[in-house]
Automatic annotation (TrEMBL):
Every PAC domain range: 84-136
Coiled coil residues, start to end: none
InterPro entries named in the record: Biofilm_reg_signaling, GGDEF_dom, Nucleotide_cyclase, PAS, PAS-assoc_C, PAS-like_dom_sf, Rev_trsase/Diguanyl_cyclase
Record SUPFAM superfamilies: Nucleotide cyclase (SSF55073), PYP-like sensor domain (PAS domain) (SSF55785)
PROSITE patterns: GGDEF, PAC, PAS
Domain PAS: 10-67
Record Pfam families: GGDEF, PAS_9
UniProt protein name: PAS domain S-box-containing protein/diguanylate cyclase (GGDEF) domain-containing protein
PANTHER family linked to this entry: BIOFILM ARCHITECTURE MAINTENANCE PROTEIN MBAA, DIGUANYLATE CYCLASE DGCP
Organism of this sequence: Geodermatophilus obscurus
GGDEF domain mapped to chain residues: 168-296
NCBIfam families in alphabetical order: GGDEF (TIGR00254), sensory_box (TIGR00229)
Amino acid sequence: MSGGHLASSHAAALHSAFLHAPMGMAVTTVDGVLAEVNLALCRLLGRTPEALPGTSLFDLTHPDDRDGARRSCAALRVHRSSLWRHECRFLRTDGEPVAVQVATSWVDADGGRTAHLVMIIEDIGDRKAVEAGLRHQAVHDPLTGLPNRVLFRDRLQHALDRGHREGTETCVLMIDLDGFKAINDRYGHPAGDRVLAAFAGRLTAALRASDTAARLGGDEFAVICERSAPYDAQALVRRLHTLLVEPFDLDGRPVPVRCSIGLGHVHGGTDASAGAATLIGDADRRMYADKRRRRD
């Protein structure tokens, strides 16, 4: 076989490897205009091989990610790196976003071909979903799905910061179920967990859109009421007590549940850095005072 035939055969093999590679691949201009694409990229974007060449990658990028993609491309032109990674979202023909990682190499002009970019485009949607799930688990209670103590503290601080900027009031309710230990002792912990989850559902039903409920641990819950005067929070307390009049149902057994609630309140002018501890402390003291009154 002649040298020309060998070179031609080698080129054909390389092109076949590019075309049928299991991961999305593309050759683009230095400005991100597609010149060549493989079949995996076409499948990823839901487009035909004929539709993509001549299209700018920025036109395929989610609008919220375009500025970042443009900055990444501009930095690549400056540094001309052999490997540049960038994460963004592309849009399929049906408008659905797909999360991708784009690994790009700069190729200098050579042999009559202008400088260009070679890209490997990996679908990272599953990885992003796992990461989002882990982030959610880290700040949410697994039993009730409510924010946990970590997220409660974060959201409370944000609420106090906004209240300080806007001059609005913030209230916090600390909530503790009365006699919950007796429920666990009588019916068992799995039944107690069902009661906690059901209580969280009724608590959520009592909230306004701007309120945030959290489970702090055990049978202790809390609610952040932004832009709320004490009478607004007291209205929430009344709604919650009304929702608890109906006993919970455990396989046909009615289980009455009551709760003690304490209210903490800060004015908008309160220093946000010191407000959280004061607010929680006031609400806690009033919640235990309410519990003592109920026992007496």
